[in-house]
Amino acid sequence: MADINSKLEIGVTTGPIRGSKKIHVGPLGVAMREIHLEPGSGEPPVRVYDTSGPYTDPNATIDIASGLAPLRRDWQLARGDVEEYAPREVKPEDNGQLGPDRSGGVPPFPTALRRPLRAKAGMNLSQMHYARRGIITPEMEYVAERENLGRARLTEYKRDGESFGASIPDYVTPEFVRDEVARGRAIIPSNVNHPECEPMAIGRNFLVKINANIGNSAVASDLASEVDKMVWSIRWGADTVMDLSTGRNIHDTREWIIRNSPVPIGTVPIYQALEKVGGVAEDLTWEIFADTLIEQAEQGVDYFTIHAGVRLPYVPLAAKRMTGIVSRGGSIMAKWCLAHHKESFLYERFDEITEIMKAYDVAYSLGDGLRPGSIYDANDEAQFAELYTLGELTKRAWAQDVQVMIEGPGHVPMHKIKENMEKQLEACGEAPFYTLGPLTTDIAPGYDHITSGIGAAQIGWYGTAMLCYVTPKEHLGLPDRDDVKVGVVTYKLAAHAADLAKGHPAAQVRDDALSKARFEFRWRDQFNLSLDPDTAEQYHDQTLPAEGAKSAHFCSMCGPKFCSMKISQEVRDFAAKQNQPVQTFIASEEEAEAGMKAMSQKYEEGGRELYIGAGNREHD
Amino acid sequence: MADINSKLEIGVTTGPIRGSKKIHVGPLGVAMREIHLEPGSGEPPVRVYDTSGPYTDPNATIDIASGLAPLRRDWQLARGDVEEYAPREVKPEDNGQLGPDRSGGVPPFPTALRRPLRAKAGMNLSQMHYARRGIITPEMEYVAERENLGRARLTEYKRDGESFGASIPDYVTPEFVRDEVARGRAIIPSNVNHPECEPMAIGRNFLVKINANIGNSAVASDLASEVDKMVWSIRWGADTVMDLSTGRNIHDTREWIIRNSPVPIGTVPIYQALEKVGGVAEDLTWEIFADTLIEQAEQGVDYFTIHAGVRLPYVPLAAKRMTGIVSRGGSIMAKWCLAHHKESFLYERFDEITEIMKAYDVAYSLGDGLRPGSIYDANDEAQFAELYTLGELTKRAWAQDVQVMIEGPGHVPMHKIKENMEKQLEACGEAPFYTLGPLTTDIAPGYDHITSGIGAAQIGWYGTAMLCYVTPKEHLGLPDRDDVKVGVVTYKLAAHAADLAKGHPAAQVRDDALSKARFEFRWRDQFNLSLDPDTAEQYHDQTLPAEGAKSAHFCSMCGPKFCSMKISQEVRDFAAKQNQPVQTFIASEEEAEAGMKAMSQKYEEGGRELYIGAGNREHD
């Protein structure tokens, strides 16, 4: 279903996700997705969180060359604390034209010359700043509406779960969002220059979010496929997208991505800064780095990964490791520190960086440059040394009301995952944790979306606010379109498993709706309620392609003679007819005997109306 | 690499797994796989547990029509407690020739007319019986050798992990195996009529095992593909295989599978019994069921799933559920109980079943017929009512020295998984737990190998001895060859993650070897050490196909200019050269300053010999 944009041949996937329709809720028209079930079922439609933006709205016109509508612009201007100004001029080196390779230039985004916004002198645009002054912004209202999915039906559900100290409310009010942002327990990434972004929150008391990484490298990938990957990843549920491009055309590629993204975009500015100095880390300077921050802030990047915790004294700690430093940003800074026998300029100039962040409301994603890259290195001295420094920097950022989240590992065996979460909460004052996996074993390259999905579900349960996806290509190559989808769906299910275990009041609605559909052989509803309806139906059709099978009360697993689901319905009918109190497993012989007689009688009366149909196979 | 067996066109995959060679260790010639690393690396070969049997041994001749060599036959005869006898005659209904469909007959296994073995009058062939009399059998010796993988290098490893009360020894002795089997904490499934089976142990103090389900249904699949799936599943690591065939040809299909299987085979006898009565559950009788047990015991089935815990008084409890009874065996017995207003004949005749089990050493896999089929039904009254009955039956089986394991759920959210393990340990006296998943959410059909892999890794960590795989087709269709491989590899990595977290002394050897290879850019070693070398190399080659890239010190993720691994080596060299004590993160300013100066000096001396190469990309 790819619309090819004739002008630039940038094609993206549009159209509704199978079985659901886009709705806009409340005065702010918060975008959600509604899955309508079979009319005969008498089941209400199920509302699900929707990250896909206008691309799944049949009423929206998509023109990649124009970008998305500036949803938040009026809100920003109404606050009266911003000013338009002439942007920093785009330099050749912004697109990596310093290096030997001058090929592969991409066209600049047509309307890229617009005037950016920034805070008026002395002003602070961060959502945290508004929150701390008691102001409830439209962004906070949008988030509240968005997070309340399914809670209208809450009365039907008893709270059930273990949240390890989280404070998930029954219902999310704008005031609750404001308070969480004010405390620093949640962030709403929202660069003033990314008005196309639909507000979302990252925090342990909200739905667990996931991030998808895209970006070209000097070896592979190009502009069109990166824009397509961004749209593709949000279609399947990516809450934020990081553009990790290196090599050429970094500036222009990013512009195309941001202008077309309804979700927050994150970057690692040190990558581009390094390109600007020809890849020689020791030639990096504060001036070049600061200029790169301004450049990206003007484009609208919503959060920056800053590896300010890689301090010179920690670098030697990495020498004891099996796999040293696996973070690119971390290794770049480690090298700079060694080369200059100086403390990291990111650490020393941290408050100056914060000044830039608050002028645009760019959120910090404090990078864990010393995270472990193998099971052997998990939870070591280098990792925790950096974590405590990130805690110190969090407080420095908060002192200027700038939003912060903390990046986490990495490779960690299951028994060491909880310690990561506990130390992070303690060291960083409940600032949102944003982890990569963690991978729970090193021995399955090609399946690291799963080795890490296991760790991601667990750390999400313990309190991590956002999970950075890992694709099957991790450690092996750059993810293609299919890898991106598998990575996103894997992380969506891990995040959902975490929400269920935390006892999020809205989470189980969808599981229950799908299980009920499964029990009642509503195959289409089962497909449509799943995270990936296309794949579910395709798998079903591989054995029973006939259209009739979609309504058949059996499936290929057991064939038309075995059916556990069918008989369960009969058991239920029995119990209903006899309506005798259900017996417990400590039933006495007498009670049992009575139950047997009663049931058998009903059975005889029912004309032995039992037979084994066919249904759900689960290993026996 | 499929050898087509011309006579019967049953093709199976043979030949070594890439990068490794079959070895036979010790006086019993215990089969293992050895992965040889690059000569230049100076790394020793890595021994891994091998379930693939003779199919991966270039020196073995494979003839599907003859079956495998009877490895254990001499051990059995030497014990002097067995007798050969004329087998029960194969009846038409054994192959389901009662029903309307008389098509699709498969050829009987050529040598199927051999005379089976059973215990002489009054004798008991179970490994538990030998163990309790203090006898260490060759089977126990085989298991001990097999479980000690990598422990020769143990001295290099400190024990590290949380085993939740397991008693994993540093080194496995035959006496330890005997003791575990005698206590009922481990089983060695080993039907006297399956001498082709390579002994293996299932117990929480041994490596976590996985099971793969195969089997045709009346709707799909055939003999050749089932035999192929069995061989394919053990190639990738299935420790046992369950033949869940229904429909026609059950007897002959099973014979072909058992005669060619080097791993224990499990079945659910009630499936075949039901076929014998034309699919009408209420027509099932004890006589037909008992006859089916004999039939399958003579063929060599190593463990039977028996749903004797589905008692009549519990059936109404399922009426309160979202998805009722999802176990086919459970629903069949529930229906029988209701129809006859009688207690289950499996429960009432349990001790008679046990008499049959011990005459052939068939192990019980007590089925959880009332396991939850949805998040909503997890940990409910019906489930735990049955569990406590399974505990009672365990003790009755143990009273006759018959081996037992307990089947477990199903669909369980993460916060309710641990309770399952704890209740099972308490109710069943540490009899091995054998769980299906559990699936941690219901909303991802098409990805249930992952929703369940998350739960499997956790419950394996808590103490489950064997994990029953779930494939991507779960709930949607019958798994094909590719689904079987994905399911097996997913469960192998989940089981390994559990071994790591439990602190199994041998587990981390492989992770460390692979991570070291990754750090040193030994791409081939990285592929060969992985659970699926073919897929790992294929993914790598999708972006960098050139042969040279296999030795390149960079990869496609970051391109030739970024490299965290490379710089880490440089950091290590620095630390080594300066050999100053590594500083901790509470380093004082003075210490830090000193470190900086020292390092910078080395750097200048080294001729600024640092540059950023390319390496491992992990999200930043």
UniProtKB/TrEMBL annotation, chains A, B:
Q: Does the keyword Lyase apply?
A: yes
- Catalysed reactions, semicolon-separated: 5-amino-1-(5-phospho-beta-D-ribosyl)imidazole + S-adenosyl-L-methionine = 4-amino-2-methyl-5-(phosphooxymethyl)pyrimidine + CO + 5'-deoxyadenosine + formate + L-methionine + 3 H(+)
What pathway or pathways are given for this protein in its record? Cofactor biosynthesis; thiamine diphosphate biosynthesis
Name the domain of life this protein comes from. Answer: Bacteria
UniProt domain ThiC-associated: residue ranges: 20-83
So where does Zn(2+) get bound? 411, 475
Cofactor(s) recorded for this entry are: [4Fe-4S] cluster
**A single GO BP annotation from the record?**
thiamine diphosphate biosynthetic process
Q: What is its EC number?
A: 4.1.99.17
Its top-level enzyme class, in one word, is lyase
Q: Which GO terms describe its molecular function?
A: 4 iron, 4 sulfur cluster binding; phosphomethylpyrimidine synthase activity; zinc ion binding
Q: Where is this region: Disordered?
A: 86-109
The family database entries (InterPro entries) matched by this protein are listed as: ThiC (IPR037509), ThiC-associated_dom (IPR025747), ThiC/Bza_core_dom (IPR038521), ThiC/BzaA/B (IPR002817)
| 4Fe-4S as UniProt keyword | yes
Q: How and how many cofactors are bound, per the record note?
A: Binds 1 [4Fe-4S] cluster per subunit. The cluster is coordinated with 3 cysteines and an exchangeable S-adenosyl-L-methionine.
Assigned keywords, A-Z: 4Fe-4S, Iron, Iron-sulfur, Lyase, Metal-binding, S-adenosyl-L-methionine, Thiamine biosynthesis, Zinc
Q: Binding positions for [4Fe-4S] cluster?
A: 555, 558, 563
Q: Which Gene3D superfamilies match?
A: 6.10.250.620, Radical SAM ThiC family, central domain
Q: Matching Pfam families, A to Z?
A: ThiC-associated, ThiC_Rad_SAM
Please provide, in alphabetical order, the Gene Ontology terms of the cellular component aspect for this entry: cytosol
* Family indicated by similarity: Belongs to the ThiC family.
Function summary = Catalyzes the synthesis of the hydroxymethylpyrimidine phosphate (HMP-P) moiety of thiamine from aminoimidazole ribotide (AIR) in a radical S-adenosyl-L-methionine (SAM)-dependent reaction.
Subunit record text: Homodimer.
For this entry, the protein name equals Phosphomethylpyrimidine synthase
Identify the taxonomic lineage of the organism of origin.
Answer: Bacteria, Pseudomonadati, Pseudomonadota, Alphaproteobacteria, Sphingomonadales
- Gene responsible for this protein: thiC
